[in-house]
Structures are given as structure tokens and as C-alpha cells.
Amino acid sequence: MDILNSKGADYARDKELGDKLGNFRRIAAQTGIEPRQVWLIYFLKHVDALAHWAMTGGVESEALEGRFADARNYIDLGYAIWKHLG
């Protein structure tokens, strides 16, 4: 939750509303895709990093704990997109 709250604040922009999905909506509008497709791209970035660890046994740029935490947060964000944006 700490990571979700701290990183989410950077992407929400509207601090009063606390819109943690604002980034997905903005990027979707800018690229002509759906917010859920933006989420998939972001989520797969973390899955790809975890797959690299699983295949090689190593990580290079970020601690493995952070990779797992980010992937877990993106699962929650994906659920929120499904519930609130369709």
C-alpha cells in the first residue's frame, strides 16, 4: 500500500480527488487506446522483469522486492480499472 500511495500520487495529478487511474485515462486518450490496454503495457513491463529474474536468476536495475511489489500493485490497479472504467 505504501508503494501504491506514493507512486500513485505522482500519476494522479489531481491530489484532491486522489484519482489513481488518471494516468491510465490520460495516456489512453493521447494514444487512442483503452485505459485497460495502457494498464496491460505497464503491467507487462513488470512481468517481463520478473520473467528475466525467473529465467536468469538475477536482476540488474531494481531490487527484486520492488519488482514483486510493483506487479502486485498493478494487479490492484487492473482490478480498479475493471471496476470503475470497464
Number of strands: 0
Biggest sheet statistics: none
- The oligomeric state of the chains shown is single chain
**Residue fraction in strands:** under 5%
Q: How many helices in DSSP terms?
A: 4
Q: Roughly how much helix do the residues carry, as a percent range?
A: over 70%
Low-confidence stretches: none
Mean residue pLDDT:
84
Shape: elongated
Tally of domains: 1
What's the SSE pattern?
HHHH
Structure description:
The protein is mainly alpha-helical and 86 residues long. The chain has one domain (2-85). 76% of the residues lie in helices and 0% in strands. It has 4 helices and no strands. It has helices at residues 2-12, 22-31, 35-56, 64-85. Helix 2 (22-31) packs across helix 3 (35-56) and helix 3 (35-56) packs antiparallel against helix 4. The model has no long low-confidence stretch (mean pLDDT 84).
Short description:
This protein has 86 residues and is mainly alpha-helical.
Features:
single chain; 86 residues; mainly alpha; 4 helices; 76% helix; 0% strand; elongated
Topology record:
Blueprint: H1 2-12, H2 22-31, H3 35-56, H4 64-85
